[in-house]
Design brief:
Blueprint: E1 15-19, H1 24-35, E2 39-44, H2 48-60, E3 65-69, H3 75-89, E4 92-97, H4 113-141, E5 144-149, H5 161-181, E6 187-193, H6 200-206, H7 212-221, H8 230-241, E7 252-255
Parallel strand pairs: 1-2, 1-4, 2-3, 4-5, 5-6, 6-7
Helix pairs in contact: 1-2, 1-8, 3-4, 4-5
The chain binds NADP nicotinamide-adenine-dinucleotide phosphate.
NADP nicotinamide-adenine-dinucleotide phosphate (NAP) is lined by residues 20, 22-26, 44-47, 50, 70-73, 98-101, 122, 126, 148, 150, 163, 193, 195-196, 199-201.
Length: 261
């Protein structure tokens, strides 16, 4: 296909929905999608001020923005937000799951069942709620669903069960969507986020879950010997969501500096 014949990366009509736009990676995704011409509807949970900052960055990128508070554990809230976004912008062509709770890092022997249950409710159920809410709109637009997961589902990192378990479930949902919804033109992919210096990183360092020893060991095991950034993750999300990836579905792209090799 010549440059002149190339499809636009995203449709002109409708919007991209980003769940977790108040977060480090969700913000970078919202801004990159806006820079590629998408109107953006994004959600926040407790971080209203951070959501306003993201909204301002999307507007600076020249796009219209719609924001709403969503608790992913509540199926009806997720449905309402996605339907509102579709109504506001005349459809949804892109859905990105970029949310997730804080995850205290402990050995399995030291984690409580209630912490495990809670993270599954926020993260695995949250992503499932989003997939179900977005599907009718994505079928109409032949759109895409992209979810953030972790390389720990391929190469387990000790003390990371609260990330690896829900993300393994999310990857299964993504593969299921790809297999079942491809006949409607819907694509679904995942991005495995390695250790980056944005988003959750700050709280993990502050709480001592990421100490210097952990960070040095992480760097050492990565082929590229450095931590990543939210922008580098967002590049991969934007690619997979765009028409450039129109024949890619059901894949998990590790954006992890070569951690999971
Ligand atoms: N950063 C990393 O190194 C890394 C590595 C691997 C995987 N990931 C995954 O990537 C995703 C984004 O991470 P991040 O670093 O950007 O984290 P972050 O900065 O802490 O952002 C998390 C986002 O999720 C939202 N959220 C949390 N619980 C929610 C709930 N119950 N309902 C609705 N929204 C909720 C937060 O909303 P509020 O802030 O408004 O409350 C925020 O927008 C997460 O799934 C995380 O597990 C991150």
């Amino acid at each position: 296909m010549s440059a002149a014949q190339r499809l636009p990366e995203f449709p002109v009509d409708g919007c991209a929905v980003v769940i977790g736009g108040s977060g480090g990676i969700g913000r970078a995704v919202a801004v990159q999608l806006a820079e590629r011409g998408c109107c953006v509807a994004f959600s926040y949970f407790k971080g209203h001020a951070r959501a306003e900052e993201t909204a301002s960055l999307v507007r600076t990128a020249g796009q219209e923005v719609h924001i709403g508070r969503v608790d992913l554990r509540e199926e009806a809230e997720v449905l309402r937000f996605v339907d509102e976004a579709a109504e506001h912008f005349g459809g949804v062509h892109t859905t990105v799951y970029a949310a997730g709770p804080y995850i205290p890092m402990r050995f399995i022997s030291q984690q409580s069942a209630s912490a495990f249950r809670e993270v599954m409710e926020h993260d695995a159920f949250g992503c499932f709620h989003l997939a179900q809410a977005a599907l009718p709109h994505l079928r109409k637009s032949k759109g895409s669903f992209t979810a953030l997961v972790t390389p720990a589902i391929r190469r387990y990192a000790v003390r990371d069960i609260l990330s690896a378990a829900p993300k393994a479930a999310i990857e299964a949902v993504v593969k299921g969507l790809a297999a079942e919804e491809g006949r409607f033109g819907v694509r679904a992919n995942a991005v495995g986020v390695g250790v980056i210096t944005d988003g959750l990183y700050h709280a993990l360092v502050e709480n001592g879950d990421f100490d210097q020893r952990f960070l040095d060991a992480s760097r050492e095991v990565m082929a590229l010997k450095r931590l990543g950034t939210a922008e580098e993750v967002a590049e991969a999300v934007a690619f997979l969501a765009s028409s450039r990836a129109r024949w890619i579905t059901g894949q998990t792209l590790m954006v992890d500096g070569g951690y999971a090799l």
